[in-house]
Design goal:
Layout: E1 14-16, E2 22-24, H1 40-48, E3 61-65, E4 70-72, E5 74-83, E6 96-101, E7 112-113, E8 121-128, E9 132-140, E10 145-154, E11 160-164, E12 169-175, E13 188-193, E14 204-205, E15 213-217, E16 224-232, E17 237-245, E18 254-258, E19 263-267, E20 279-281, E21 291-296, E22 302-306, E23 310-314, E24 326-328, E25 338-343, E26 349-353, E27 357-358, E28 361-362, E29 366-370, E30 382-384, E31 397-399, E32 405-408, E33 413-416, E34 428-430, E35 442-444, E36 450-454, E37 466-470, E38 482-484, E39 497-499, E40 505-511, E41 519-526, E42 538-540, E43 550-554
């Protein structure tokens, strides 16, 4: 006698399917007689008679899965599954999917048409390259279904070392195979240079706080093309950068007016990078009040135009809280917000005055001329002023060897004959769409070529600015014969400019004033004849320099 307990089967029952219909179980699944004892084989038969699941419906969405929430840049596998309305795999799906992602550099699978063997699911590979949050999407446009997954792409392992920042610093940045900064890099770098006199940093092991990039001090000493290389011997990674190191620049001390902190900083011949000034004129006794432009006479005396309607003059070698040896100020002087100043061979002082500027232009602008040695409430010996002059917000000025006067206006350069006075018309005007001008500082070289600093490039907008160079005697809507402009130049709203005896160009970059441009506070130096998107041959920048909104340079 079988020891199984008695099992009584129910009457034939109906089974509910997912489509809502109810169907009776097959008759053979019910015992022939209620209450009969069933042997083990009968129990197995009952188990086999469980109600059947309905077949999957058509695909109504695509599921993209298989990627972790955070993955390193590189190749990763993911799976696309077609699902019906109940979330089950739509095994009969044979649609075509297209892939897209917010990572513009990613390598995506080609469009794929599902086949029967896929049974509604297929695995693909994607190569993410861009650090940050990215979305991967699969779309079947014909069926109107799609699915996506969001993933945070982290930098991969360091695959290269980038070197930048020359000539004053060396910035070493570890990058993964796709150009992302390898923030987890902890290797040790060693430095070498083609400059046998270079002062290089010691070996350095990156730490977590570096986040893959570190800046080191550097001093290159030998003129010519020099390269610096950083090498991680353990990981077999290296990177280098080359720069042209000029001969000692400048060849004599030079002076910079800093409007931001009412100072004049003086640098020794050969100073570069984060140089400390040899001298600084600053303090309550100096009379410096918004210094704009500066000039030196043959005796080394320094002339400074101040926004508060004064010209202050300092003895050669003045430093610290020096009292001016001469101050030109008073109602007779005609000074009205003086800016550009220049000295001729006879020691006469020329001053640009730009009072009463508003949205409609600048009025009552003038150029006043003072006798050599003028002081106090001095009356000008000559004044260029009037409707014929074309003066409009005059700022920087320069004199050529023949005594002709060049004046920077709001959107033009006007040139006046030697000795011009009164309501004199200019003998030349550089102005027009070809000039590319939004001028600031101006300077002349020994051959008469005119250099113009344009703090905002045309069309107007956030820009690094430019330096335009015009042929000697240029007039009208003249096209520059050379233009220094571009991301390599280091120009940021250039203001004052000057040329040394060798023809090297020095540019004061105060920064700011151009929308999104940030403060610069640098002096950039360019080789004679430089043009295009050229890197400076030298630079003065850093916390030691004392530069604070530099506006003018002189030698």
């Amino acid at each position: 006698m079988n020891r199984l307990t008695n099992l009584t089967l129910p009457q034939p029952v109906a089974s509910a399917f997912r489509d809502g219909t109810r169907r009776p179980l097959p008759r053979q699944c019910v015992s022939a007689s209620r209450g009969h004892r069933l042997r083990l084989i009968s129990l197995l038969m009952v188990a086999a008679c469980t109600p059947q699941t309905a077949p999957p419906g058509p695909a109504v969405r695509l599921e993209v899965a298989g990627l972790a929430s955070s993955i390193p840049a590189g190749v990763a596998a993911f799976r696309v599954t077609a699902q019906d309305a109940s979330g089950h795999t739509a095994t009969g799906y044979i649609g075509t999917v297209h892939f897209s992602t917010t990572d513009s550099l990613a390598v995506l699978p080609a469009d794929y048409t599902f086949v029967g063997a896929d049974a509604g699911a297929h695995t693909f590979a994607v190569t993410f390259k861009t650090f940050g949050e990215n979305t991967l999407r699969a779309t079947d446009a014909a069926a109107g279904i799609s699915g996506s997954i969001q993933v945070a792409v982290t930098p991969g392992a360091a695959a290269s070392l980038g070197v930048s920042g020359l000539p004053c610093n060396i910035v070493v940045t570890a990058k993964d195979a796709f150009g992302n900064i390898a923030t987890g890099y902890t290797g040790t770098v060693h430095f070498t240079s083609t400059d046998p006199l270079a002062v290089l940093p010691p070996d350095y092991t990156f730490g977590g706080a570096d986040a893959g990039s570190h800046t080191f001090p550097l001093a290159l000493k030998t003129a010519g093309s020099q390269a610096v290389t950083a090498t991680d011997f353990t990981s077999s990674l290296s990177g280098s950068e080359a720069v042209t190191v000029g001969p000692t620049t400048p060849d004599k001390p030079f002076y910079v007016a800093n409007r931001g902190n009412n100072s004049i900083t003086i640098y020794a011949a050969g100073d570069s990078c984060n140089a400390t000034p040899a001298r600084t004129i600053s303090g309550s006794n100096t009379g410096l009040q918004g210094p704009n432009f500066i000039a030196l006479d043959a005796a080394g005396q320094l002339y400074v135009s101040n926004e508060q309607n004064t010209i202050t003059v300092y003895a050669a070698g003045a430093t610290g809280n020096a009292t001016p040896m001469v101050t030109i100020a008073g109602s007779n002087t005609g000074l009205s917000v003086p800016s550009g100043i220049a000295l001729d061979a006879a020691g006469r002082l020329y001053v640009a005055n730009s009072l009463n500027c508003n949205i409609d232009g600048c009025f009552d602008a003038s150029i006043t001329v003072y006798a050599a040695g003028a002081t106090g409430n001095a009356t000008p010996t000559a004044t260029i002023h009037g409707s014929n002059t074309g003066l409009s917000g005059p700022s920087a000025i320069a004199l050529d060897a023949a005594g002709r006067l060049y004046v920077r206006n709001d959107q033009s350069i006007t040139v006046y004959a030697a000795g011009a006075t009164g309501n004199a018309a200019p003998i030349a005007t550089i102005q027009g769409s070809n000039t590319g001008q939004f001028p600031a500082g101006i300077a002349l070289d020994a051959t008469g070529r005119l250099y113009v600093a344009n703090p905002i490039a045309v069309p107007v907008g956030p820009s690094s600015g430019s330096i335009a160079v015009y042929a000697a005697g240029a007039n009208g809507n003249a096209t520059p014969i050379a233009t220094i402009q571009g991301s390599n130049t280091g120009l940021i709203t250039p203001a004052g400019i000057a040329l040394d005896a060798a023809g090297r160009l020095y540019v004061a970059n105060p920064g700011g004033g151009c929308g999104r441009c940030s403060a610069s506070n640098t002096i950039t130096v360019y080789t004679p004849g430089a043009t295009g998107n050229v890197a400076p041959m030298g630079i003065i920048a850093g916390s030691n320099t004392g530069l604070n909104t530099p506006t003018s340079i002189t030698f």
